[in-house]
Amino acid sequence: NIQYCMIKCLLDHALNSGIRCYHVAPVLCQRAKVAMSHFEPNEYINYEKLEKNINIVRKRLDRPLTLSEKIVYGHLDDPAKQEIERGKTYLRLRPDRVAMQDATAQMAMLQFISSGLPKVAVPSTIHCDHLIEAQSGGEKDLRRAKDINQEVYNFLATAGAKYGVGFWKPGSGIIHQIILENYSYPGVMLIGTDSHTPNGGGLGGICIGVGGADAVDVMAGIPWELKCPKVIGVKLTGKLSGWSSPKDVILKVAGILTVKGGTGAIIEYHGPGVDSISCTGMATICNMGAEIGATTSIFPYNARMKKYLGKTGRADIAALADEFQQHLVPDSGCQYDQVIEINLSELKPHINGPFTPDLAHPVSDIGAVAEKEGWPVDIRVGLIGSCTNSSYEDMGRSAAVAKQALAHGLKCKSKFTITPGSEQIRATIERDGYAQILRDVGGLVLANACGPCIGQWDRKDIKKGEKNTIVTSYNRNFTGRNDANPETHAFVTSPEIVTALSIAGTLKFNPETDYLTGADGKKFKLEAPDADELPKLEFDPGQDTYQYPPKDGSGQHVDVSPTSQRLQLLEPFDKWDGKDLEDMLILIKVKGKCTTDHISAAGPWLKFRGHLDNISNNLLIGAINIENGKANSVRNALTQEFGPVPDTARYYKKMGVKWAVIGDENYGEGSSREHAALEPRHLGGRVIITKSFARIHETNLKKQGLLPLTFADPADYNKIHPVDKLSIVGLADFAPGKPLKCIIKHPNGSQETIMLNHTFNESQIEWFQAGSALNRMKELQQKSS
To answer: In this protein, which residues make up the domain named Aconitase/3-isopropylmalate dehydratase large subunit alpha/beta/alpha (predicted)?
Structure first.
């Protein structure tokens, strides 16, 4: 079990420490085999290969390398021949491992089953965290989830066993906290089917969120393609203190770069201020880098990471990282594509929102801004936890605030919930008293899961359409994301600020300057919270929630019932017929922000993530139609009647009519969910034309055989009307870097032509021609056999 593995690792470290006292030559230390994790004792960290690849690339480029470049280029499939140009070339990479959360793992494993391969080629894990709805409290909600989702959990557990994938059972915790505790390490390259996978950058790894089809490539042993990222440097000086926290760093950066400012880039933190931030604090910053569109974020290996590795039973990994430290930090004199500098000593607590995570405000200003804008200032619910802020330190700082309120006879005026990040965090904060303090102040401890952060919240205190405010320590606050209510004004901030505001009950409270009135009528001011970054004792691992895959899973049966409403085996998409896409109808022309939540909503729809036809009934139901300003109401061009988007798409598919979607800026930002690409493909869509795309979504569309195209002139967005027909011509000569021609046919018979850009490379064009990346994989398998 976990506890045994941790004890064994600590004993091994003690023995290894004794050996190092005799000054064994460093080369022997370098050759020592150190396992990637407790759970895969025969899968080893290969820093020697990383070093070799870095040296090859450094010699070729003849310049200092950023940390991001070292780890990315250190995982190149062919470092000697790979063309490397930031922001332009596509890299072929060999990630070390794959992680999947249960909502996306269903489709990923269904695609892997379709590949016909017997076993995954790299260490892979499934984490059950998305399907647990917050309702009554941790234990009750977990029991209910196990009952409701039994079919899905059984499928994931048996598929994991058959194909060699580790399985973290429901209740184990949020995928990113589990990865930080067990799988991330300095220099690792990990891909995960969740957009907040970059959380692992807090331990010095390149951890990237992807769609399920990308995960299938890696699990199949195929080189994974990524456009060579640019590198944005964030230089940190000074030191965090007082009410300022790591969360404020990323809230500040989000305000600077906006939700698309990091697109196509890795955010690399460096500078003397880094050492003032805990390892889990660095993870918080990296986690929310997803909100600025960044490919991932990373910190250099340092003593804070070493301390965390030791406390989580991985001192052997820290010792090995020490030997290779020169490759786990940036080279002196390396060049960034952009540099932002933040003085942590001057950084004030921030709160971002509502409705977008890049609308940044100092906490001291938010009350006045809310009153001016007409946002509700009374806070209905405060929520702490999530994959972004559920560490031991986060819980400790929140408890430190709560303890002060209790000492003056106060409890939270707002409803208050707590989400532990993992079973290990839950058990440890229970043992150390933090959980009880948070209950005493009025909090409800939820299950170790995503819960309200992703819309898994059976909220009862308001009616849908009721205008209200909530404050969270989460990462996203898009319209309706947490509770499906478009009138909920959600703000994101640090857990300690959430706790303070929940005690006060209003956005107009500034804990740095304002006073509260105790039960005795006396005024008092909250002191800035202080808490240990790690427990003084060892972590309590809690219940054992991990299922090892058997050595031979070939005899394992994976059951998918043909009558299931939750799971559905996949049928291959149709191949391109070799012709231009002519006279396509426009399903919807989207007005404004269109995230993956708008394209494929979560919340109650999560239960259909393994059933493509059923979940397609939520296609674009949150997107605003420019024709009438409404959501889920589009004109059927064949009947001229208005109806729901999915119904209209199904009608077009039934009639054999291809269709397109027209989008605005940064289309598909947010979650990595590939259902936002699978659904339009399943219902007959062929082309998505926008001003710009979010990285993950653009790749997901390509993987499923769709054409994501962008206006060569963004003003051409205004030339297309919902009643027009579109033709994409020149597909017979489809080639990398060559724009495509779009003919717009207006109802009055007139036509005009615009040009559309794309980012397809040669292999991605083959995906389109084959009908999908999975189809192309099968073609190559057949050819090789």
So the answer is: 69-505
CA atoms within 13 A on the CB side of 54: 24
* Active-site choice (97, 361, 476, 650): 476
CA 361/CA 351 separation, integer angstroms:
5
pLDDT digits (tens, 9 = 90+) for 456-472: 999 999 999 999 999 99
Q: For 135-149, what is the mean pLDDT?
A: 96
Distance in angstroms (rounded) separating the CA atoms of residues 200 and 192: 10
How far apart CA 169 and CA 556 sit, in angstroms, is 18
The token duo for 301 is 């290996």
CA–CA gap between residue 361 and residue 347 (Å, rounded): 12
Q: Which residues of 326-365 are buried (b: 16+ CB within 10 A; e: fewer)?
A: ebbbbbeebebeeebebebeebebbbbbbbbbbbbbbbbe
Q: Positive or negative, the Cα torsion across 214, 219, 220, 221? A: positive
Residue 687 · residue 584 · CB < 8 Å? yes
Rounded to an integer, what distance in angstroms lies between the CA atom of residue 53 and that of residue 71?
9
- For residue 65, report the phi and psi dihedrals to the nearest 5 degrees: -110, 145
DSSP state of 448: S
Q: Rounded distance, CA 114 to CA 567, Å? A: 14
**Closest alpha carbon to 441 in 385, 398, 379:** 398
- 580 burial via Cβ count (<10 Å: 0-12, 13-18, 19+): middle
* CA separation for the pair 515, 716 (Å, rounded): 54
Q: pLDDT tens digit string along 328-383? A: 999 999 999 999 999 999 999 999 999 999 999 999 999 999 999 999 999 999 99
Considering 96, 102, 194, 394, which one is annotated as catalytic? 194
Q: Name the active-site residue from 127, 397, 481, 673.
A: 673
pLDDT in tens, 258-307: 988 999 999 999 999 999 999 999 999 999 999 999 999 999 999 999 99
Token couple for 139 = 């234990």
Q: How far is residue 385 from each of residues 60, 119, 297, 354, 416, measured CA to CA in Å?
A: 45, 35, 21, 19, 11
Question: Tokens 């006292």 label which residue?
Answer: 21
CA distances from 240 to 195, 247, 274, 679, 745 (A): 27, 11, 10, 45, 58
- Is residue 205 within 8 Å of 180, Cβ to Cβ? no
User: Which of the 8 DSSP states describes residue 580?
Assistant: -
Q: Which one of 96, 102, 129, 483 is the catalytic residue?
A: 129
Q: Is 94 a catalytic residue?
A: no
User: Helix 495-504 to helix 392-407 angle, to the nearest 10 degrees?
Assistant: 20
Cα separation, 711 vs 689, whole angstroms: 7
Give every CB contact of residue 362 below 8 A, 6+ residues apart in sequence. Answer: 348, 349, 350, 351
Neighbouring residues of 14: CB distance < 8 A, sequence distance ≥ 6: none
Rounded Cα–Cα distance for residues 325 and 330 (Å): 10
Active site residue 194: yes
Active site residue: 671, 672, 692, 772, which one? 671
Supply the pLDDT for residue 776: 93
pTM (predicted TM-score): 0.91
Instruction: Tell me which residue has tokens 């054999």.
Output: 656
- Provide CB contacts within 8 A for 76, sequence distance 6+: 53, 57, 82, 91, 92, 93, 94
Backbone phi, psi, residue 89, to 5° = -80, 155
Kindly state the greatest CA–CA separation across the chain: 87
| Catalytic position from the list 38, 75, 86, 130 | 130
> In this structure, what token pair is assigned to residue 158?
């048996």
Whether 391 and 425 have beta carbons less than 8 Å apart is answered as: yes
Residue 671 is a catalytic residue: yes
Assess whether 476 carries a catalytic annotation: yes
Q: What 3 state SS string does 182-218 have?
A: HCCCCCCEEEECCCCHHHHHHHCCEEEECCHHHHHHH
